[in-house]
Amino acid sequence: xxxxxxxxxxxxSALTIPWPLVAQSMGSETTIDIEVVRAILLNGLEQHKQxxxxxxxxxxxxxxxxxPTPEVRDFAQQIDHIAVDNANFVVWxxxxxxxxxxxxxxxxxxxxxxxxxxxxxxxxWVIETLRSLPPEELVVETELFGQRLQRWHVYLQALxxxxxxxxxxxxxxxxxxxGPPGWKSY
Length: 186
Description:
Number of domains: 1
Strand order of the largest sheet: 1-2
Helix content: 55-70%
Shape: elongated
Radius of gyration: 17 Å
Mean pLDDT: 86
CATH topology: Four Helix Bundle (Hemerythrin (Met), subunit A)
Number of helices: 9
Order of helices and strands: HHEEHHHHHEEHH
Strand content: 5-15%
CATH superfamily: dinb family like domain
CATH architecture: Up-down Bundle
Largest sheet: 2 strands, antiparallel
CATH class: Mainly Alpha
Oligomer: single chain
Low-confidence stretches: 1-26
């Protein structure tokens, strides 16, 4: 594990944790406390869940299925994409064989309350997979998108993807005459 990877974990989770808790320099090697990494990732997932809920609540009903151009996802589909891919990353990274369905898309894509329920169910499943992994399983190498990485890094990739996708919906708010919910440190 390199220094850049540790920094990425801390930054993407929007936490300020004293470095001695995360990493200790051992000559030319750096070691990490995997339980601190787990705590950072869990906090990040909880933060992302809250942000996705706030985004879903903030969009007007009239813009739930709105999209700026025909070839892109509508707002509800973008939120669905974040939540589904969080679970998909866990599956694609070889941490779980399959994930449960979290609802009927014909329902939750057309109802803000159901979309929120869907988002919560998906995040809860991902959070529980992370909580339930024994520490030694978090450092097992796996493959995701052709890249070799440790399992804990799969969750970091899911967080990065969620940030990327959530950022794509900011124009959906702006083009509907409003700003998105503000960023918060939870």
